[in-house]
Amino acid sequence: MIKEVRSENDWEAYIREHSPVALFQSWSWGEIVEKAWRLGNFSEDKLTSVAQVAKIDARRGRFLHIRHGPILSSWDRESLSIWVDYFISLAKKERANFIRMSPLIPNTEYNERLFKDFHFRPSPIHAMDGEYCWVLNVDKSEEELLSGMRKTTRYLIRQAEKIGVKIEKSKNPKDLEDFMTLYEMTASRHGFTKHTGIVDEFMEFLKKDQILLFKGYFDKKLLSAALILFYNNQAVYHHSASVDQKIPVNYLLQWEAIKEARKRNKKIYNFWGIAPTDRKTHPWYGLSLFKKGFGGHSLEYMHAHDLPVNRKYLITLAVESFRKIKKRY
C-alpha cells in the first residue's frame, strides 16, 4: 500500500540502506522543492520502497519528476508496476503530461528492458543529475590520494600552495552573495542554464551541517568558489563558479574539499557529472579532464526515462531533442 511517509528518520534510514547516494530523494531536498510528495510502499507497516515525487511546471508543460528515484529494495516487474500505476494515476490527477524517473540503478540490459516493458522511453535530455559521474574513494591517506592523481594535477596543487593561494570554508549565508556573483559570471561565460534555488539549498542543508562553501583567493581576490554537499557516505561537488584566469585556484580548492570529506569520514568524493564521451567538442570535455586528474573512476547509472501520459509529451520530446543537438551533448 502506497501512502505518505511522515517520519524523516524512517525515510532516511531506508535511503541509507538501499541507495545512500540518492541526493535528490533526501528529506532535505524535498524541503526545497515547491511541490513534492514523500511516498512509501508499505507491507505490514514495513517500508519496502520510497519515492519523492516533484510536480514541475515548465514552459514546455507540466510533469512529475522522480529524481534519483524511486528507490526499491527489489527491482522486479511486480515491485515497479505498483509504482507505475500510482504515478500514472497521480499524473492524471495533477494534469501532468508525462512522468520522468531517474533511479540510481545500473545501466544494464535488464533494467532497460524492464522500463521498456512499462512503455518508458529514454528521456531526450543529456546525462544529468550525476547519472554519469566521476568518483574518488577517499578512504585512503593523503599520500595515497596524491599519488593517485595525474602528475599535472598534483603539481598544480603544490604550485597553488607555493604562490600563496588561500582556501576559506564558510557556513555564513552572507558569503553566498559572492558565490552568486561569480556564478552569474560563469553561467554567462559558458552559456549554461543556471540552477535555481541555490540559496534555498544552502540554507536547508546547513541546518544539518551538510554543506560548506569553499572560496579560493589569490592576492586577496576571490577567483573561485564551490558548494560541497555532505550526504550519507559521500561528499558532492555540486555547484561551482570561477573567474576566467590561469591561477590554479580550482586545484587547491578541490584538494581542500577532498580533505574535508576525509575529515567527515566520508567514503566517496563525488565530482558529479562528466562527459559520457571523450569527444573534444562536448561542452563538458575540459571540466571532465579536470575532474579525472584527481584520480578515481567513472560510475554510470541508467539514463532518465519518460512515460508519456498524453500527446502533449510530444512538445517536450521535440524541444528537448532540439536543445540536446544544439548544445552538442
From TrEMBL:
Q: Which UniProt keywords apply?
A: Acyltransferase, Cell shape, Cell wall biogenesis/degradation, Peptidoglycan synthesis, Transferase
The record's section on InterPro entries has: Acyl_CoA_acyltransferase, FEMABX, PG_Glycine_Bridge_Synth
GO molecular function annotations of the record: aminoacyltransferase activity
User: Pfam families recorded for this chain?
Assistant: FemAB (PF02388)
Kindly give the Gene3D superfamilies that the UniProt entry links to this protein.
Answer: 3.40.630.30
- What GO biological process terms does the UniProt entry carry, in alphabetical order? cell wall organization; peptidoglycan biosynthetic process; regulation of cell shape
Cited PANTHER family: LIPID II:GLYCINE GLYCYLTRANSFERASE
Q: Which family does it belong to?
A: Belongs to the FemABX family.
Protein name (database record): BioF2-like acetyltransferase domain-containing protein
Q: Which organism is it from?
A: Candidatus Gottesmanbacteria bacterium RIFCSPHIGHO2_02_FULL_39_11
